[in-house]
Amino acid sequence: MLRRICVGTPSEARACAHALLRRFAGGAYVDRVFDSLAAGLSRRDRALAMRIGFGAVQRAGTLDHLVELIAARPVARLDPVVHAALRAGLYELLYLSGAPDRAVVDDTVEIVKANHSHGADLVNAVLRRAGREREQLLSGFCESTPEAAAIAHSHPLWLARMWWRELGAQRASALMAAGNEPSESSLRVNTLVSDAQTVAQELPAVPASGLLSRPLPEALLLTEPLDLRACPLWQAGAVIAQSRAAMLVSIVLDPQRGERVLDLCAAPGGKSSHIAALMGGSGRVLALERNAKRAAALQATITRMRADHVTVVNGDALTFESSERFHRVLLDAPCSGLGTLQAHPDLRWRMTPARIAALAQLQAALLHAASRHVEAGGCLVYSTCTISTAENEDQIASFLHSHPDFFPEPPPGMAPMFGGGRFLRTLPDRDRTAGFFIARLRRV
Fold first, then answer.
1. Can you give the pLDDT at residue 73?
2. Residues 134 and 235 reside in one and the same domain
């Protein structure tokens, strides 16, 4: 049985969630427009609006399947106002609890009427039937095939089939189920400014568990919602929002005091600032970012995090030239982001196999460019936040074949690993964090 989550019932939150779903249907990125839509809501209303809106986007495939089942008509024929209302109302009825069914139905119908739609009667009928048949509807899903699992867990069919093929049925189903859960609310304490024990005393946070046998003493997990950017500790550079999996990347790079480190594709700066902290403020870090706007944001992060020995350069990693080579080079490559579906509810509906193929070509070019900057005996770390063989294992295999002066080096003291013990992979269902792939390569 699918888990249900207790929440409150404010109608303002439902109206906000409905507006968010309308914007999503129009092509907007929900995490970018939510703040403006939720302006003026109380913290409680905002939390519910986000839960309904983001959750309905994640489960859009399942909800549309149920709409067509109950209403006996294709969702493509529905008025946009009605379609958004049915997604929001069904999500709250089937996946949340705490509000009476009548309140959910009545509020949703009123939202449709307020938007001058003539579909209020249809919405009322569909939602009331869903409330009566809730258990039957939720128990009607199976996961025996990629096609069935894609509907049950609301993922594109191409993605269900890809994970089925690459990871097996059990892991694929578990990953898809995890993709509909809330993402972890983790922070990294900046040891250039403070320490985890001090910060934990001032925030609603507790120490986070480690990953793959590696303790993460700088990691905290929030225990309640927090407007982080309004927090004095954030403004002072003591904390940054970062998943535990993302923290592993800089740890695997293992920068040492006094070394020269190059961070390619460095924005928004979480890993660059982490590298600086691991080096204790010594040595030199060059952080490269092609996009001028993102480079400016990267510089702002570096300044806030007091990483004074990090130099930000607005430049293209594919064409960047340097007269010196570096002890360590990090390529946190642009990727499909399939390991971050919890945090980005609409990403699964935007990504395509063609886009993955294009990204794989770019990653190969970036890996070759990155290798030119590694000194003899130096270290190159390649990482992605995706779960895709073409972008991960195949990418490294192709690189090693064409670059015999590099060999894979197992990160010390970390398990479980795969690929003959050569690479690291975190999985949302197993590790309760983002899905990352990390390969550490040593130059002969």
1. 93
2. no
Compute how many other C-beta atoms are within 10 angstroms of the C-beta atom of residue 436: 30
Distance of alpha carbon 87 from alpha carbon 18, whole angstroms: 9
Which residues participate in catalysis according to the annotation? 385
Q: Do both 285 and 249 map to the same domain?
A: yes
pLDDT in tens, 186-230: 999 999 999 999 999 999 999 999 998 889 999 999 999 888 989
* SS3 category, 86: helix
- Please give the tally of structural domains in the chain: 4
* Residue 183 lies inside a defined structural domain of this protein: no
Residue numbers of the domain that contains 39: 5-140
For residues 292 and 374, state if they share a domain: yes
Q: Which helix (H) or strand (E) holds 441?
A: strand 437-443
Identify whether the C-beta of residue 363 lies closer than 8 Å to the C-beta of residue 335.
yes
Give the total residue count for the chain.
444
What's the rounded Cα separation, in Å, for the pair 441 and 108?
A: 55
Beta bridge partners of 232: none
pLDDT band at 413 (very low <50, low <70, confident <90, very high): low
8 Å CB contact between 63 and 350 = no
Q: How far apart are CA 151 and CA 79, in angstroms?
A: 22
User: At 252, is the secondary structure helix, strand, or coil?
Assistant: helix
pTM: 0.93
Residue the block writes with tokens 């690291």:
424
User: What is the Cα–Cα distance from 427 to 128, expressed in whole angstroms?
Assistant: 38
Alpha helix positions (H), 319-410: 347-350, 353-371, 393-402
DSSP letters spanning 358-382: HHHHHHHHHHHHHHTTEEEEEEEEE
Pairing type for strands 205-207 and 219-222 reads antiparallel
